[in-house]
Every structure is written in structure tokens, then in C-alpha cells.
Amino acid sequence: KAGVTQTPRYLIKTRGQQVTLSCSPISGHRSVSWYQQTPGQGLQFLFEYFSETQRNKGNFPGRFSGRQFSNSRSEMNVSTLELGDSALYLCASSLGRLSGNNEQFFGPGTRLTVL
Amino acid sequence: DQQVKQNSPSLSVQEGRISILNCDYTNSMFDYFLWYKKYPAEGPTFLISISSIKDKNEDGRFTVFLNKSAKHLSLHIVPSQPGDSAVYFCAASAIPISSGSARQLTFGSGTQLTVLP
Question: Which of A97, A101, A109 sits opposite B32 (nearest CB)?
Fold first, then answer.
């Protein structure tokens, strides 16, 4: 079974630009969660999508948005980029069951650098 | 306000010795705890977990201990091997407040473990 894939793996943007990151979950997984990893901050939860609907959201500004398609693939968009948005963006897929613990499987991440 | 804290950003251990990674949490609603391992240029991978109804869970060389009264958990790796060198993240989850939500993971900031040959 193929793992979680993320594209692109690396991105360099300048302040004020916008960026779109893509995540393809494991086949059969309907939940995709996005995280931002920065040094010293660990993984900060951005949002979770399930069946094309945002089901949960972390404490990030509205510049961070996402969507999920009918095939469960998800995109994350960041508008008006700031230097502080430089980070590793990870997505994780799971079955997304409401009860029980859903093991999350992570992709390799997209390294975003904002200049 | 970090609800899950890993106060040691790095740890070095000699090969064959025990590695002990620590994690503290503040949210008393957390009832499920996990450890993830992350190599450079790869996403985190699940290592071991423990439910709050237990105080110990063992899987081969890896053992997780949970002290609920102290809101503390630790990961023991015995014996440590050079291949264990990675960043280790502690994570926790709680039953969601909203009935339409699934559990979400809250992560610590990670500890870089280096096992010296």
C-alpha cells in the first residue's frame, strides 16, 4: 500500500506571495490533517478534513486554508506569506473514525522557505 | 500555552545504554499518549502508545511509562542503538468536546536523540 505523498517537497517563495501544497493520503483513508513544524515548536495542528469537510481547526490565522477533494486528496493554501511561515508542513492521513484512536500516517512534508 | 512539553531538546547516549525521553502534559483530559520518531527528510512514524488506564506498555526495546498523578510520561529505549538516533515527539489526545469531531493529536516540541557508537 502506497504511503502518504506530498508535493512539492521543497518550495521557496517571497513575502506576500501565496502557496498551495498538496497531499495524497493512503488509499482508503478519508481523513487528512495538516501540521506546521518549526524548530522548538513541535508539530502545530492546522486543520483536519474528512469527506471534503473541515472537521477541526487549530489556532492559525485565516491566511491558512485548505480543502479536500472527493478522492480524499487535500490541498493547503497560505496567502500573503510572511517570513514566519517558513516551516516544514506535514500532512497525515487516517481512517478518521469518530470513536477510538485513529493512527495517523505522515507524509515526508513540504519544506517551505519564505524570503 | 503548550499542553504537551518536552523540556529536553537533545539527549546523547552511548550505544547499548538506556535512553530515557521525558514528556509532561497539563491537560487532565488527555487519555491517550503516543510517541513518534522522525528521521530527517521523512515524516514522523508511530512508535508506541499507551492508554491512561495503563501505567506501562512495552514493545521490544521500547517501553512507555505513564504517571497520571504527575502528568508525566517517559519513553525508555533499552539497549539504545545508533539507528535510534532521531527526533522523538510525544503526543496526546483527548475525547473531542464536539460530537462531530475525531480525536486530534497535540504534540510536544521533540527531543533529538543521538546514540553514540
Answer: A101
